[in-house]
Amino acid sequence: MPAVSSRRPGRPRLLARALPLAPAVVLLLLFLAGPIAYCAYIAFTDLQLTGQAHSSFVGFENFRAAFKDEAFLNAVWLTLVFTVLSSLVGQNTLGLALAALMQRASKPVRTLVGGIVITAWVLPEVVAGFLLYAFFRREGTLNAILDWLHLPTQNWLFTLPILAVSFANVWRGTAFSMLVYSAALNEIPKEITEAAEVDGAGGWRRMWHITLPMIRRSIGTNLMLNTLQTLSVFGLIWVMTRGGPGNRSQTLPLFMYEQAFQKSMIGYGTAVALLLLVVGALFSVVYMRLLRTEV
Amino acid sequence: MALLTGATLRSRRVGRRLAADAGLLFVAAAFVLPLAWVVLSSLDAHADLRVRVPDGLTLDNFDAVLKPDITFTPLLNSLVLCGGGTALTVVCAALAAYPLSRFRSRLNRPFLLTILFATCLPITAIMVPVYALFVRVNLIDTVQGTIFFFAASQLPFAIWLMKNFMDGVPRELEEAAWTDGASSLQSLVRIVLPLMGPGVAVVTVFSFVMMWGNFFVPFMLLLTPDQMPASVSINDFFGNRGTVVYGQLAAFSVIYSTPVILLYVLVARRLGGGFALGGAVKG
Questions:
Q1: Shortest CA distance to A225 belongs to which of A31, A78, A121, A91?
Q2: Residues in B touching A216 (Cβ below 8 Å)
Q3: Is the per-residue pLDDT at B106 higher than 60?
Q4: Could you tell me the pTM of the whole model?
Q5: What is the ipTM of this complex?
């Protein structure tokens, strides 16, 4: 049987094989690699939107300015809080808890809960923002419930804006972790958990000593993807608080937008964007290490 | 003795199922509140910001927003942008995935690693340079420019998914066609793509849903109000139109969200509950 793949590819064959890649490569180079390269360039200039004919090269000035800028440091801190609270703690833990409970729950409950959580995920970003804006507003649902329970109410978007947007991100993003963990838990052979159960291991011990070690790769990839997703959230926060009040929910993407467009400092805004890209790239590399056997 | 253990295990299992059900329903109740607000308010003539059952159901809110400038134009704009972007993404991804899946080459691994790397980059970060670049090359405020960018931003993930799905189609089926003299393109279109129908559907729906909900890209790249998709025009309910009519905002949100939810349900059903996507992402 002549194996087709063993035919030696001549020049025309090589071209025929590379050609289908061309449209994708051109798009990626022009609209993704291009802007990234351009980003790396203008981050080192003093490019502004208005009042200046030419921009000049300023070296690391934008970065030096950033690390002296309290508003920037505030954005870095808030991004950290937002990411840790909503992605590492919230989405990840709640997603795992939901997936674990779903393994034991009855089918109708599983379907219903899965449907609700996934709907929150599929909703457009801006709509999700409005729904949670309504939920957290002073006249909103959360305060109505607290009032009903005779608990103190407050203006959440004013007093604890970063907490409110973090909760919003948990609401919106947990479905992804739930799906990843459900898939991972389904792959664990029933015999293993059943054997441990007969040996008398309780639920928590089984989770800690058997389940978690077996799904550790899924945990790694899920954490990585959640974090990257959360790092670039813009619309959700924009709709709920515009980064305010003041700059108390202004994460890096919103800070970048404000500097570049409301203050017209494209060079400075891009320097911030470049830092965000670098952080994302570092996470990407770790993620690829986790997956390294796959390609 | 063994019987006894079996019985205790079984009764313990029933107890656990009830506990799991209760826990899940509690979380679901918290998740459902914001969703209930949008549905109930859209049917309420006096909607405000809290969840409550309306005194009487009315479709007035829908009547009020179902007008060309409020709903139809933005949705049509969304459809053009996301439809165009998705078509471009799926065609380019299918073409690119084919040689990556079918032929061995030293370039495959570096290419796929680059793609995987790009999949993870925070696209939000490059919107400022993209804006600056689009101003330079006169693509700012153009539908085609936005479509190109949408496609490029979705392509890495689409290629990655498409390649994984394509690997699942056995080579043997094509080899017969090749010996009959079919070209690669012919075997891709006639044999591989039809066999991986659900995979193509997943990539298509996923790309479309991502673009449909995306706010930042059109917000940055489009300027003319007439060209704005629904993700941006929804902002008009605040500010420009004076006081916010929450019932109408809710009605618009329902209209705008329904297509993507239906699309998701359609694909999830065919693939047994959306878990395929989770699995595909996992690697």
A1: A91
A2: none
A3: yes
A4: 0.87
A5: 0.86
